[in-house]
Design goal:
The protein is of the alpha+beta class and about 400 residues long. About 30% of the residues lie in helices and about 30% in strands. It is built from 11 helices and 16 strands. The protein has an 8-stranded antiparallel sheet with strand order 2-1-4-5-6-7-8-9, covered by helices on one side. It has a 5-stranded parallel sheet with strand order 10-14-15-3-16, sandwiched between helices. β6 and β7 form a beta hairpin. The longest helix is centred in the middle third of the chain and has 18 residues. The two termini are about 35 Å apart.
């Protein structure tokens, strides 16, 4: 079993109170504007960032916006929010719950890692004057619990592999649970294709797709040579999601430099930098179409289809080194997934998501409009979370 987040809990986060969301291989959040779709994905992305070791202020640049509007400060003016998740995997379901203080200063005030009712790690803010929390983790044997301070701006679970020796059965259980959670949280790819950044030529690099998909042409160059099967699947998807005939996806060295430039200087720049642009091959006797000429919805469709058909080796993510990549499942987070797409394009993306989800190596959590949600409700294997009042 690959470690995966199977439940997201927003005990008190923005507009959500006591909310529990099961997550399957393909999960779509639906509801009217202001219902909390983006907030749910933001909570998931924040947990992923903390699992990667990022500090709180990087993960929550505007923490006060995540505090429920009805939250009343205590006598010391403190307000905050609570989020959590369940991660299933080889050791079974493991729960992670986190309490964060947003005012008057951002800090972790409590964290709990548990399994089958057994608390494996708990932290608490004992002295507000210190920038640390008091942590205790299960040891077993004569000691029972080991206590030590941990930083109040990091996820304690992500620090446990550096602090626990694993010399007792209890410690090994703690390590196994913590590593399962960290592997699942690190295996996340937030994706928001930006068509305005995808139109121009790009400099060839390592061929790993960024979250904004601005280097799409470079990744197509790589997949064409290294991932023939997946590249062919992407071309087949393009026949559904792009207007006009599509024989293949191709790239070519372009003339000029990014954002403009022509003539002799532009040719010199192209030769010096090796800029490439993506193309839709329209078939014999037809001129190819550069990506820059495609509609915004077509570009978003191509980028999202590529994400769903590839994996960590092609996407710009840093998967955990504790497990082989074949034993990890990557979760794609896509807020406003169907922005600029028509029903045909949205339905094709859902088909690709189900195809990848069935293989177990790609999962999708997205926020969509009602048209896409209506289509998804009729598809076996897609879970639609309805946030309508």
């Amino acid at each position: 079993m690959r470690p995966t987040v199977t439940e997201l809990r927003l005990s008190a986060f923005a507009a959500h109170r006591a909310a529990v969301f099961p997550l399957g291989p393909v999960t779509l959040f639906a509801g009217p504007s202001g219902s909390g779709k983006s907030q749910a994905l933001a909570a998931y992305q924040a947990l992923a960032g903390l699992g990667c070791g990022s500090p709180l202020d990087d993960v929550f640049p505007d923490p006060v916006a995540r505090v429920p509007e009805t939250a009343v400060p205590d006598a010391d003016g403190r307000r905050g929010f609570r989020i959590g998740c369940t991660v299933d995997g080889p050791v079974g379901p493991v729960r992670l719950d986190l309490a964060v203080q947003a005012e008057p200063e951002l800090r972790v005030v409590g964290e709990r890692l548990s399994q089958d009712g057994q608390i494996l790690l708990s932290t608490a803010l004992c002295d507000p004057r210190r920038r640390s929390v008091q942590a205790g983790w299960f040891t077993g044997g004569a000691v029972g619990v080991t206590r030590a301070p941990l930083p109040d701006d990091r996820l304690g679970t992500a620090l446990l592999p550096l602090r626990v020796a694993g010399s007792t059965a209890g410690q090994r259980r703690v390590l196994a649970a913590a590593e399962q959670v960290v592997v699942a949280l690190r295996s996340v790819f937030p994706c928001d294709p930006r068509p305005e950044r995808m139109r121009g030529p790009v400099t060839p690099g390592e061929g790993r797709l960024r979250g904004d998909c601005a280097n799409l042409a470079d990744v197509l160059r790589r997949t064409r040579h290294e991932c023939g099967t997946r590249h062919a699947l992407l071309a087949a998807a393009a026949r559904t999601g792009c207007a006009g005939p599509v024989a293949a996806l191709d790239v070519r060295v372009c003339e000029g430099e990014p954002g403009g430039g022509d003539g002799a200087f532009g040719a010199f720049q192209a030769a010096r930098t090796g800029l490439v642009t993506g193309l839709l091959d329209r078939g014999p006797g037809r001129p190819a179409t550069e990506l820059g000429r495609l509609a915004a919805g077509e570009l978003r469709f191509l980028a999202l289809a590529l994400v769903l058909l590839t994996g960590p080796g092609v996407l710009a993510v840093d998967p955990a080194a504790e497990l082989l990549s074949a034993r990890q499942a990557l979760t794609v987070l896509a807020d406003d997934l169907d922005r600029g797409l028509d029903r045909r394009q949205s339905a094709e993306l859902l088909r690709l998501a189900l195809l990848s989800g069935a293989r177990g190596h790609i999962r999708l959590v997205g926020a969509v409009g009602e048209d896409t949600a209506g289509t998804a409700r009729d598809l076996p294997g897609v879970s639609v979370v309805d946030l309508s009042p």
